[in-house]
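4.2 Preliminary Data

To establish feasibility before requesting continued support, the project team ran the inverse folding procedure on a target of 214 residues. The structure was first converted into the token representation described in Section 3, and no sequence information of any kind was made available to the design step. The complete token record follows.
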């Protein structure tokens, strides 16, 4: 039996939760672990279920998606977390990536494109709706912290891996390219994220592209 990606959906719209769960079922590589109608309920289920992937709405009543995401990360939840939203506002996108999101997908994406982006996130690649990538790159490039980051001393191996992240390579592919263990790749990524003060590989990858490091 093939392992499936266990998914938790956190969204306060029942119809969208149903539609998203039906879409995931069609892919066969995903299974629904649970559903939550609020951020607080989602946090409790995430702790109980330890899903592989969390699909999280941005604009919810009460606790927002970014607040929920930040809390999940602060609690040490290591699931892949993708914001699924109607908002294409740069400030929402940057806030989500800054809080530790592994992806940001617009709800009006075509179903096939949405599944492809979700699958990309599960393989360690960037999962951002294409039309938003340039917005994020511009926002990150304009930050004052860019100058500080450009002066951070990465090891040769960390610099190489950062370029490979920018190229969209997964941990597995990076490990294959460098002939090292996948676990070693994860350690290097964790170190470079800490040095550059990024909370997610997506933020690091887009920043690297925006600054000509790819």
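Position-by-position output of the design step:
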């Amino acid at each position: 039996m093939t392992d499936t990606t266990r998914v938790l959906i956190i969204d306060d719209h029942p119809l969208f939760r149903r539609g998203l769960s039906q879409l995931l079922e069609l892919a066969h590589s995903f299974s629904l672990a649970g559903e939550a109608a609020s951020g607080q309920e989602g946090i409790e289920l995430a702790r109980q279920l330890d899903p592989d992937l969390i699909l999280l709405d941005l604009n919810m009543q009460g606790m927002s998606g970014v607040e929920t995401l930040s809390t999940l990360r602060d609690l040490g939840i290591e699931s892949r977390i993708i914001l699924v939203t109607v908002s294409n506002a740069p400030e929402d996108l940057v806030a989500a990536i800054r809080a530790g999101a592994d992806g940001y997908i617009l709800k009006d994406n075509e179903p096939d494109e949405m599944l492809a982006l979700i699958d990309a996130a599960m393989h360690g690649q960037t999962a951002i709706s294409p039309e938003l990538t340039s917005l994020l790159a511009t926002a990150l490039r304009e930050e004052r912290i860019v100058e500080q980051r450009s002066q951070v001393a990465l090891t040769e191996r960390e610099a190489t891996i950062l370029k490979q992240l920018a190229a969209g390579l997964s941990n597995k592919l990076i490990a294959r390219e460098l002939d090292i263990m996948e676990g070693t790749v994860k350690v290097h990524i964790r170190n470079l994220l800490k040095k550059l003060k990024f909370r997610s590989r997506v933020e690091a990858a887009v920043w690297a592209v925006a600054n000509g490091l790819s």
